[in-house]
Amino acid sequence: MLFKKPAPPASKKSLTSILDFHLNRYARAYTINRHMMTVLLGMALLVSADNYFFKDKEGTSGNDHIAVIKLTGEISATNKSGSASQFAKSFDKAVSNAHTKAVLIVANSGGGSPVMSEGINAVIRDHLAKREQLAKSGTDKEKALANIKVYVSVEDLCASACLASIASADVITAHKNSLVGSIGVRMDSFGIDGLLAKLGVERQVLTSGTNKDLLDPYRTMSEDEKAFIKRELMDPLHRNFIDLMKEARGNKLDVSNPQLFTGMVWSGTEAKKIGLVDAVQTTNQLEKELMAKYGVDDIQVVQKEGFSVMNMLKSAISDGIAMSTERVLAKEIAQFK
Fold it and tell me: Is the pTM value of this prediction over 0.90?
């Protein structure tokens, strides 16, 4: 024909259709990759079985070493590097290994739970008591394990519950610029009742006990209530902390220092002067000193997370899909500009 009807201009694809198309592609790819993950996981299980059945088990293999346990972050039940239960597992694993010559706790924590610190300190104290008993009446093997001493290297900070946790160690060292101390008890709350009043919000609370809402942030505590909390809750905890430090550090502590139990924090250099630490040196210096003292050339971190093939594959696939999606979307969205 002479006059041919022009073809309608190609309509641009909608963003929704583009997303659907590519997400379907990646969904199929992910399904395929799941089968690959199953195969690789099976291979990993075979390797693990080989390691378990045909190689020496933990406690009888490896080289003589210094076992390192890291005590980092908040001292709390929810922090794997700061919970009493996890610390106990790592510590028992270290001292039950025939190749462990000493335990080194690397501490870096601003404090946390008094209960968790009590648990961690008890693990160390129990080891010291058992060590003393085995040295007197144990077998030769038990006496060798009884020689395992506990060292601590404070890095940036070891305050409050952290200090209570490691106080019973045989030797405590700190960097000269470390912060050490804070032997005290702190309890925080908020009083936002004034703000609620300005907003015209009236809060109604029913309790079956006079002190049930004692720490309620929506009301202001009276002076009598504050005094009660300090006398009945905080002071006993503070006394327990002081008693723990005196028992653990003994005559090393300069109890004549009026600031010692006030919650004050000192540098590593000053902490040595008042007996909170035994020596000032870096973690690396202490590691080298211990390796030379015990004739070993190996440092082993006890609580390393185990290798997981599944987690590695999932992470790799997720990252791959995210990166590919980002590139495709960037290219497709550019067509809308």
Answer: no
